[in-house]
Design brief:
The chain is mostly beta strands and 50 residues long. It has 1 helix and 3 strands. The chain has a 3-stranded antiparallel beta sheet with strand order 1-2-3. The radius of gyration is 12 Å and the shape is elongated. The chain starts with a strand and ends with a helix.
């Protein structure tokens, strides 16, 4: 795991966060990015799981 980025989004009454995680491929060794829009409380769970 190398770089992580977090941006905050607000839609109506809900507050959401867009989290971007860089993941290394086990086959080729190339990096790809995984994006998800989650609650701010669940960002650390998203970034910690593989």
């Amino acid at each position: 795991m190398a770089k992580k980025s977090v941006a905050t989004l607000q839609t109506g009454s809900k507050r959401l966060t867009k989290a971007i995680k860089m993941v290394k491929s086990p086959k080729t060794g190339a990096y790809s990015f995984v994006e998800a829009i989650v609650d701010p409380e669940k960002v650390n769970d998203f970034l910690s799981k593989k």
